């Protein structure tokens, strides 16, 4: 079970979070029975935090795990040597990781889309036979809504996060298919003669 978010909004959110002083120092990069080596995940900054980082600095750090984070989190990284990026060519590495993320997402009983909270709630309720006390509210104002990228920055972002963009496109199509499917099944249930017939007494 997981929730996916539109890649640019997710990436921008992480950038702003880091800019305010957040770090992932306590993250456990465990894969293949071991922790990632310091030579495999090099820090993007010196000191305790990366507060005040500019978007260009955040974007151009070659070891920034914010890039394609959703794909990496969903994939079986053992298929690509965990965090060792030297054992295969980047094209092969990226293809294997993306396909693994897609397959794992497809095999999940449920996943949601942040930008589709209403359908996400409906899908969850009908998948697991549960009911929320109230409807999920996604109307809060997101930080960074007024953050505008220059054309050069946009192109660099898209190149860096191509896997997450492709994964999100796949996820949206799969999500819409599941929503339609549970909708049809629900409609069949409420219109079933057996369910709606009046018993004889």
Strand content: under 5%
Number of helices: 8
- The shape, in one word, is globular
Largest sheet: 2 strands, parallel
The H/E string reads EHEEHHHEHHHH
Q: pLDDT average, as an integer?
A: 90
Radius of gyration: 21 Å
The main sheet orders its strands as 1-4
Give me the secondary-structure category.
Answer: mainly alpha
Low-confidence stretches: 195-201
Distance between the termini: 45 Å
Strand count: 4
Q: Give helix % range.
A: 40-55%
Question: How would you describe the overall organization of this protein?
Answer:
The protein is mainly alpha-helical and 201 residues long. 48% of the residues lie in helices and 5% in strands. It contains eight helices and four strands; from the N terminus they run βαββαααβαααα. It has a two-stranded parallel sheet. The chain has a two-stranded antiparallel ribbon with strand order 2-3. A hairpin with a 2-residue loop joins strand 2 and strand 3. Helix 4 (90-106) runs parallel beside helix 7 and helix 5 crosses helix 7.
Short description:
This protein is mainly alpha-helical.
What layout of secondary structure does this protein have?
Layout: E1 2-4, H1 7-19, E2 30-31, E3 34-35, H2 55-60, H3 69-74, H4 90-106, E4 111-113, H5 117-128, H6 151-160, H7 162-190, H8 193-196
Helix pairs in contact: 4-7, 5-7
List keywords for this structure.
201 residues, mainly alpha, two-stranded parallel sheet, two-stranded antiparallel ribbon, 48% helix, globular
């Amino acid at each position: 079970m997981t929730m996916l978010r539109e890649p640019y909004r997710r990436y921008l959110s992480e950038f702003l979070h880091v800019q305010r002083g957040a770090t992932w120092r306590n993250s456990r990069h465990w894969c293949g029975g071991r922790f990632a080596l310091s030579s495999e995940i090099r820090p993007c900054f010196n000191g305790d935090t990366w507060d005040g980082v500019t978007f260009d600095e955040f974007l151009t750090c070659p070891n920034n795990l914010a890039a394609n984070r959703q794909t990496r989190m969903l994939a079986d990284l053992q298929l690509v040597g965990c965090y060792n990026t030297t054992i295969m060519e980047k094209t092969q590495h990226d293809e294997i990781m993306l396909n693994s993320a897609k397959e794992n997402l497809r095999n999940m009983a449920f996943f949601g889309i942040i930008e589709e909270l209403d359908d996400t709630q409906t899908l969850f309720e009908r998948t697991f036979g549960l009911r929320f006390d109230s409807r999920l509210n996604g109307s809060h104002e997101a930080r960074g809504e007024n953050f505008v990228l220059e054309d050069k920055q946009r192109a660099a972002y898209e190149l860096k996060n191509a896997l997450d963009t492709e994964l999100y496109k796949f996820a949206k199509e799969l999500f819409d298919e599941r929503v339609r499917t549970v909708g049809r099944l629900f409609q069949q249930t409420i219109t079933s003669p057996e369910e709606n017939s009046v018993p004889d007494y």
